[in-house]
Amino acid sequence: MNFTTSDKISVQKIEKSRINEVDFDNLTFGKDFSDHMFECDYINGEWVHPTIRPYGPLTISPAAKVFHYGQAVFEGMKAYKDANGKVFLFRPDQNHARINKSAKRMAIPEFPKDIFFEALHKLIDLDRDWVKPGNGNSLYIRPFVMATQEGVSASPSDQYKFMILLSPVNAYYTGDVKVVVAEEYSRSANGGVGAAKAAGNYGAQFYPTNLAREKGFQQVIWTDANEHKYLEEAGTMNVFFRINDTLYTAPTSDRILDGITRKSVIALAKKDNIPVEERPILVSEIVEASKNGTLKEIFGAGTAAVISPVSTFNYKDVTYELPPTAGGYSTKFKKELTDIQYNISEDPFGWRYEV
Amino acid sequence: MNFTTSDKISVQKIEKSRINEVDFDNLTFGKDFSDHMFECDYINGEWVHPTIRPYGPLTISPAAKVFHYGQAVFEGMKAYKDANGKVFLFRPDQNHARINKSAKRMAIPEFPKDIFFEALHKLIDLDRDWVKPGNGNSLYIRPFVMATQEGVSASPSDQYKFMILLSPVNAYYTGDVKVVVAEEYSRSANGGVGAAKAAGNYGAQFYPTNLAREKGFQQVIWTDANEHKYLEEAGTMNVFFRINDTLYTAPTSDRILDGITRKSVIALAKKDNIPVEERPILVSEIVEASKNGTLKEIFGAGTAAVISPVSTFNYKDVTYELPPTAGGYSTKFKKELTDIQYNISEDPFGWRYEV
Ligand SMILES: Cc1ncc(COP(=O)(O)O)c(C=O)c1O
Ligand SMILES: Cc1ncc(COP(=O)(O)O)c(C=O)c1O
Asked: What is the 3-state secondary structure (H, E, C) of chain B?
């Protein structure tokens, strides 16, 4: 084994790559992992031992607080390869800022920006061949932090592990998405942790999402927990509504994740002189707009799915059809975003970050 | 799920007990663990390989869903030893029913009752010496289930691990408890997972509880997320209020844990002809009752803390003092409960369960 040391990160390379065992044309999202992973521990008030080592299992106490109290946060990013083999991230500073915002809400210590970026550089550099070119192909990057202190009392951990895993992926969704508007269950509370990428927010959605799936819908659009009157976001996407030519999306709040794709779509719309309104959106408005033919599009926006057009939405057991998406905003924004991500177009906002 | 015979649990005993390394008079809650633990895996739709083995670390993928999506639930129980060395649990059927209720909400498969009980019997039998007699001493029992499938896509795991850990404890709180009534943060949403002992519910409380601690309060009493007008429960306790001679506690809902201590206190109160009302309680009522001298007691009720009298509560930066607790309901219920738990009194409700 090769051990090299940089300024900070110690690197232990794999002996033999697993890359030939992976069928890159038929990937299941988040199932395969690259050769290496990054790991860094928080002990005695300090982040120590930043290490890259072969992807593999952890040895961890069954009393680690993450198992009992869900004290854990994560991020989702992607690396994209252009036609010349250059690799880019998309607005990674935003992911770093957000994991620390999430961490704060979950009483987890912040992770230093310099190690975050150095880890991304070194790790992606080692596993560069795992980033495949071609639209839809990318290397999904999963930074996360979890509470590792051994102890079953409900109080913040004094030890944490920060890690980065890399998983090669193809496009997330195939085809249009059917959604149901939440009427009974909810995703987050005022004053809760909905704005954080806290682990428990996701597990909490599995049961109501299963109920939706049994009825033939892939996703739930969550509404406010209080009255179920306002549309908020989907499980892993923010949601946009187009009525006539105006784009609407819910404002961010302590219940809604401040999505990077969401803010990028808003920026692109403004640049393109498309009117955008960030304001609370009544379910009844959307139903009404669907009935009178002014509702042109609904689409989700998120790192995993990029832009995901909704074909039908269901509310109070009535299904509303959306017009065909060809030529709409969703197609346009998807192209504009991915052209920037894959280094096909100019990058007027400086969103690309080469690694 | 056909586990009916006791031969199904395989047992691997420790070579040398660690019991002499533990100072049983000075325990930190949830820090020390007994010699053995129980483990059972859910694979291909079945709970398999129920095993008791020496307490020790797990080997687990860093991509296990529990780390990323907080898909995990737990229980908290205690074993009590009487003066003759007999060991008892308190209403363990309730914990089994509740872990399955929590599991359902978190899209986790239910755990069979027969293995749950058989595991408790065998495990406690092996580690019987870890249950120390004497009021306040007990062996805290932590059953939990976590998602173990390797994969970073936000969907339910297809593999789980159910475990039971044992941790010797002394009394949980020392002295009276100062609490603050939540005005900004909240614990759970209508239609959320507050009624489940879902891991993420606890981590989500750490930050606001830290803020309360910095101001000198040990606990937060959560209010409804919508208006912060109604008193709900504390972090790991349900809460009772005594105005004149009547006891009030919030009704259970999808936001509030259906506590076993809570329902036991209600049953004891009814037996003792103490009026009890389960109904929404306004913060303003309690403030008013404190001002006019009719608020006699506030106490928390939960397995870890048993009955925990509140000495002061803070609301909108005003601190309200409670009268001294001696001779009150909290003292009475604590004695009645622990007398049943430690086999000192009769057990009119059949709550004791010998192991
Ligand atoms: C709850 C939630 N909303 C929205 C998003 C979209 O955010 P982003 O565009 O930063 O990926 C995600 C995924 O990250 C999410 O988990
Ligand atoms: C949120 C919450 N409320 C109340 C309780 C008290 O429940 P029990 O009396 O069953 O221990 C607990 C602890 O289990 C809890 O976690």
From this structure: CCCCCHHHCEECCCCCCCHHHCCCCCCCCCCCCCCEEEEEEEECCEEEEEEEEECCCEEECCCEHHHHHCCEEECCEEEEECCCCCEEEECHHHHHHHHHHHHHHCCCCCCCHHHHHHHHHHHHHHCHHHCCECCCCEEEEEEEEEECCECCCCCCCCCEEEEEEEEEECCCCCCCEEEEECCCCCCCCCCCCCCCCEHHHHHHHHHHHHHHHHCCCCEEEEECCCCCCEEEEECCCEEEEEECCEEEECCCECCECCCHHHHHHHHHHHHCCCCEEECCEEHHHHHHHHHCCCEEEEEEEECCCEEEEEEEEEECCEEEECCCCCCCHHHHHHHHHHHHHCCCCCCCCCCEEEC
Contact B58 A62 (CB under 8 A): yes
Which architecture characterizes domain A10-170 according to CATH? 2-Layer Sandwich (3.30)
Copy the structure tokens of residue B355: 């192991």
Q: Name the residue among B165, B207, B226 with its Cβ closest to that of A62.
A: B165
What is the pLDDT at residue A173?
62
User: Does any CB of chain B come closer than 8 Å to the CB of residue A54?
Assistant: no
B70:A67 CB<8 A: no
Mean pLDDT of B28-37: 97
Predicted interface score ipTM higher than 0.95:
yes
Indicate which ligand has the atom closest to the C-alpha of A260.
1
CB of A188 closer than 6 A to ligand 1? no
Query: Nearest Cα to B254, choosing from B26, B128, B102, B71?
Result: B102
- Angle among Cα A261, B152, A352 to the nearest 5 degrees reads 35
A177-341 in CATH: which number?
3.20.10.10
Q: Hey, is the C-beta of A44 within 8 angstroms of any chain B C-beta? A: no
Determine the atom of ligand 2 nearest the C-alpha atom of B238. Answer: 4
From the list A71, A142, A226, which residue is nearest B203 (CB)?
A71
- Dump pLDDT digits (tens) for B143-158: 999 999 999 999 999 9
Instruction: Identify whether the C-beta of residue A276 lies closer than 8 Å to the C-beta of residue A247.
Output: yes
Task: Give domain limits for chain B.
Answer: 10-170, 177-341
Helices (H), chain A: 65-69, 92-105, 113-126, 199-214, 260-271, 283-291, 329-341
- The residue type of B226 is N
Mean pLDDT computed over every residue of chain A: 95
Q: Is the pLDDT of residue B5 over 60?
A: no
Examine the pLDDT at B6 and tell me if it is beyond 50. Answer: no
* B353 and chain A in contact, CB less than 8 A: no
Q: Is the CB of B295 under 6 A from ligand 2?
A: no
Return the SS3 of A231: strand
Terminal C-alpha separation, chain B: 24
Q: Does A212 touch chain B (CB under 8 A)?
A: no
**Alpha carbon nearest to ligand 2 atom 1, residue:** B236
User: Which atom in ligand 2 lies closest to the alpha carbon of residue B261?
Assistant: 9
pLDDT band at A123 (very low <50, low <70, confident <90, very high): very high
A128: its two tokens: 């560069």
For B52-67, b/e burial (b = at least 16 CB within 10 A) is beebeebebbbbbbbb
Q: How far is the CA of A235 from the centre of ligand 1 (A)?
A: 8
User: Which of A144, A155, A226 comes nearest B226 by C-beta?
Assistant: A226
Per the CB < 8 A criterion, the answer to whether B225 and A231 are in contact is no
Angle at B37 between CA B34 and CA B43, to 5 degrees: 165
Range of lowest pLDDT (A297-301, B6-10, B216-220, B260-264): B6-10
Structure letter (DSSP) for residue A170: -
pTM for this model (two decimals): 0.97
Check pLDDT > 80 for residue B174: no
In angstroms, rounded to a whole number, what is the distance separating the alpha carbons of residues A64 and A199? Answer: 15
